Amino acid sequence: MFNIFKKSKETGSKIPKRISIMRMEDYHTHYLGKTNDGKLFFGSETFANKKPHWEVKPELQSKNRIDLAILYLFDKKGQFIESKHWLTDLDEERANTSKKLGEMVADLGKVTFCNIKIETFEINIDGIKCGLIPNEESESIDLYPSNTISFQEPWNGEYYT
């Protein structure tokens, strides 16, 4: 039998290495599914800050923000393969994030939108930490950047915002 959990020595928590993600149309997991050749994908519209938001004056927050469209690709077993991304820090381009993500998914060809099961992973895109990253303190797996969604026990594919 395989042990899909890693146990933290500090907290004794159990966080799975691989999780189910439930597709929710028109929400954070809208772009979730598999390609015709069996690869899995997860598309995300998100943001990051160049500096911590509390270090930036309110009137300059817009210039501090980077908007991203990220398409993560996984093999049939749910192991991370690669990502494709588009990002901007220009106010006049922010409205294009959703369109860019849709184009990336369309470039995959015929896809089936569905729930998926993938492994946790962490990558760096232009200096920004991205991925599904375990958080031992909160016993969760969080989608970075921006911690937009979080997965927790009972690990059934539902997420919290």
Write the layout of secondary structure elements.
Elements: E1 5-7, E2 14-16, E3 18-21, E4 32-35, E5 40-49, H1 61-64, E6 65-74, E7 80-88, H2 97-106, E8 111-113, E9 116-119, E10 121-125, E11 128-135, E12 140-144, E13 150-151
Antiparallel strand pairs: 1-2, 3-9, 4-5, 4-8, 5-6, 6-7, 10-11, 11-12, 12-13
Structure, described:
The chain has helices at residues 61-64, 97-106, and strands at 5-7, 14-16, 18-21, 32-35, 40-49, 65-74, 80-88, 111-113, 116-119, 121-125, 128-135, 140-144, 150-151. The chain is mainly β and 161 residues long. The strands form four sheets. The protein has a five-stranded antiparallel β-sheet. Strands 10-11-12-13 form a four-stranded antiparallel β-sheet, with no helix packed on it. Mean pLDDT is 87; it is low at 1-11.
Structural key phrases:
mainly beta, 5-stranded antiparallel sheet, 43% strand, 4-stranded antiparallel sheet, 161 residues, globular, 2 helices, single chain
Radius of gyration: 16 Å
Low-confidence stretches: 1-11
Question: Describe the biggest sheet?
Answer: 5 strands, antiparallel
| Percentage of residues in strands | 35-45%
Give the strand order, joined by hyphens, for the main sheet: 7-6-5-4-8
Structural class by SSE content = mainly beta
Number of helices in the DSSP assignment: 2
What is the first-to-last residue Cα distance? Answer: 33 Å
Provide the residue-averaged pLDDT.
87
DSSP strand count: 13
Share in helix: under 10%
Concise synopsis of the structure shown:
The protein has helices spanning 61-64, 97-106, and strands at 5-7, 14-16, 18-21, 32-35, 40-49, 65-74, 80-88, 111-113, 116-119, 121-125, 128-135, 140-144, 150-151.
